[in-house]
Structures are given as C-alpha cells and as structure tokens.
C-alpha cells in the first residue's frame, strides 16, 4: 500500500509538471530580476505588486506591435521598441497577457502579489535557438570564405591549365536582341563553384538554377570580371530584363539537359563556350 501511494504521488507530480508554467530563472545579483529562454508555446508567469512597475525586455531590434489582456482595466500597459511595461491599478487583477511583436507572440500569466520580495521587477528573454542559428550561419559564411580564398581564378590563361577544372560548358542565346551582351566569355567549375567570366564593363546578369522547369536564384559574388556561383549546376539561366542566356554543364554527373537538342527554354540556340 505504501509503495502504491509513493507511485501515485510520483505520477501526480509528473502530471502537474506537464501543465506547469515555464518558471524564469532569477538573476545572481537580485532575485527579482529574471531571465528565461523563449519558447513559442510557453506561458510565462509574472508576479506584480501594487505600486511597482514590471519591465519585460525582448530581443534587441524587436518591436512591440500589439497587446491585450483579459482584465485590461485593472492594469496600465505601455510599450517602447523592445520594452514592455505593466503596472497594476487594482487589488484584484490577476489575468493573462498577450504581447505581439514584429517577430514573435508572447503569452504571460500575470498575478498580483502582496510580497514585494517576490515581485517581478524585470523579465528579460533569451533566444538560444536563434543564437545557434546565427553561429551556424557565421560558421558557414567563414567556411565559404575559406573556400573562396582558394579560388582557381587567375587574371591570365594559366587557370585553363589546371586539371581539376571542368570546362565542358555550352550556352544558348534568347531571342531578345541584347541576349548576347550578357553572355560569358569563359566558363568552368572546380567541383564546388561555377565561374563565369564576362567582358570588362559588362553589367553582371542575375543567375538562376533551373530544375524541373522551376527557376531559383543562385547565391553568387563578384570577383573582378568573374561571377562566381556558389555551387555546380546542370543548367543555369542568366537574365537581365528580357535578355536571357542558357548555360549548360555538359559534364554534369546528374545527366544531360532535359529537352531535345539540349534546349529547354524557348527561343534559345545552342553554342559552345570556350
């Protein structure tokens, strides 16, 4: 019987924890200053005291757009940029609070307390998932930068002598009169990036990857007279206004072009890039 009661108490404790509010952690310097990680489905408790203002701090750069509560007449609310302020006006004002910013929605359970030592003076949010994503993006940026520093592009013809380059590219011109003006004069890839060289003083066109008749803008950067595409693709479309040029990787491991004669865009004519 005793063992059964212990198990029952443990089960009840587990059940209650599922529906518990996410309790923020108090600061080291003052127990009335709290920090908590943002989670979209969490409800955050706030303990308010008459005569005191509670400040909620969101992510830097975040802006409060709207807010509402179930007992708004019992509270004073104000917002400025990423700060939100609340102060009780009545002795009985326990309610919920919803704050909508330009980035997120926050849910709060606001309760009145007569104990000033347990009041929420400040509640600051942290964003670990966003921070992890930022760190990952920065690492990827540095990785790409390191690869680009190993770029095989040279200002003379020596780059053509490197054996790890694929120069089997061909291209098509669109029917627009100016299509040839946006065509590259040299093209190759090194298995990681695709390099398109253009005549001096030529405005670089936008580059799109084409897969299953869908076009997606390709990440790229400019290095001298070269447009460097971040990746190796079977088919690339260069566009500038109505002008269009199709670039084809004839050694692409995924296969050749999709249409008869190697043309998948109407009005294009096949030629070789050398």
TrEMBL record:
Coiled-coil annotated spans: none
Record's keyword annotation contains Signal: yes
Signal peptide from the UniProt entry: 1-20
Domain of life (superkingdom): Bacteria
Family annotation (InterPro entries): Conjugal_tfr_TrbG/VirB9/CagX, VirB9, VirB9/CagX/TrbG_C, VirB9/CagX/TrbG_C_sf
Record key words, sorted: Signal
Pfam assignment, any one: CagX
Transmembrane segments: none
Family: Belongs to the TrbG/VirB9 family.
Protein name: Putative P-type conjugative transfer protein VirB9
Protein source organism: Parasutterella excrementihominis YIT 11859
């Amino acid at each position: 019987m005793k063992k059964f009661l212990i198990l029952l108490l443990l089960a009840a404790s587990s059940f209650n924890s599922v529906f518990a509010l996410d309790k923020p952690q108090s600061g080291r310097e003052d127990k009335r200053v709290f920090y908590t990680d943002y989670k979209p489905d969490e409800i955050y408790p706030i303990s308010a005291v008459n005569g005191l203002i509670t400040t909620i701090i969101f992510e830097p750069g975040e802006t409060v757009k709207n807010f509402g509560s179930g007992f708004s007449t019992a509270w004073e609310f104000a917002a400025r940029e990423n700060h939100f302020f609340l102060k009780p006006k009545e002795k009985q004002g326990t309610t919920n609070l919803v704050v909508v910013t330009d980035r997120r929605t926050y849910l709060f359970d606001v309760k009145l307390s007569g104990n000033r030592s347990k009041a929420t003076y400040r509640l600051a949010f942290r964003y670990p998932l966003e921070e992890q994503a930022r760190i990952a993006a920065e690492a990827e940026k540095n990785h790409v930068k390191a690869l680009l520093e190993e770029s095989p592009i040279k200002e003379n013809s020596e780059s053509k002598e490197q054996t790890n380059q694929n120069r089997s590219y061909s291209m098509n011109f669109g029917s627009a009169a100016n299509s040839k003006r946006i065509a590259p004069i040299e093209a190759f890839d090194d298995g990681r990036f695709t390099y398109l060289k253009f005549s001096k003083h030529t405005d670089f066109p936008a580059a799109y990857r084409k897969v299953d008749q869908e076009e997606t803008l390709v990440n790229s950067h400019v290095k001298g007279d070269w447009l460097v595409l971040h990746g190796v693709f079977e088919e690339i479309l260069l566009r500038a206004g109505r002008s269009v040029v199709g670039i084809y990787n004839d050694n692409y491991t995924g296969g050749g072009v999709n249409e008869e004669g190697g043309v998948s865009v109407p009005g294009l004519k096949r030629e070789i890039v050398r």
